[in-house]
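ok so for the tutorial part 2 we go from a plain amino acid sequence to predicted structure tokens. step 1 is just haveing the sequence, like this:
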Amino acid sequence: MEVLETKNLRKVYQLGNHAVNALDGVDFLVRKGEFVAIMGPSGSGKSTLLHLIGGLDQPTEGEVTLAGKPLSLLKDKEITLLRRHNVGFVFQFFNLLPTLTTEENITLPLIIDGKNPRQYQDRIDNLLNLVGLSERRNHKPDQLSGGEQQRVSLARALITEPEILLADEPTGNLDSKTGTSIMELLRLSRDELGQTIVVVTHDARAAAYADRVVFLRDGKIATHKEIDAQASVQENLKSIMTEIENLEA
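step 2 — the prediction. this is what the tokens look like for a chain of 249 residues:
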């Protein structure tokens, strides 16, 4: 079953007298339970694509269908509610509220949606255990390492049990060891929770945790590289590096 589909997606930015094609006719499909990585050089359209499929921006042309709903047919309020209920976001910068504890930051989406976090305590506890922060639930962001803060961000994105989780360079602000632990957690959420995930990354090591890698170049999908979900990360990495070399040749 498709959770996300784009058809002929185009995004044009006007910079003075010049039109810049950030995306140029992208057809993209993500099925339920898939873990997809989007790679490409700087300016290839990776983040633009993520913003469009998450309803954070509107395309110039084309359609995004998310959780069975074409976004072009929805009003702004309806798109906001769709994002709130169906999409989890993880960004390079953690965007945690500094005055809130780990647990309070995680439960913030529930509170915004008018729900009582106490009714979701089992889910909160399970997520804290999943990201390894059960003992840090009462710590505030300035008492946590960068990796721990990103773990809080991940748990916050998962608290509403979204249809899809979108991550924009989730390891970009972390050292390699910590970044690896974040990708392992994303993979764990896919394997144990059945979470559908799309990650934008420039890091081949991060992309190696995905089931499938999509390469963008000049606003277009350059090629698809299918990655065996059962293969080792090292084997996946070799395949991805070979594909990157082919794109750059």
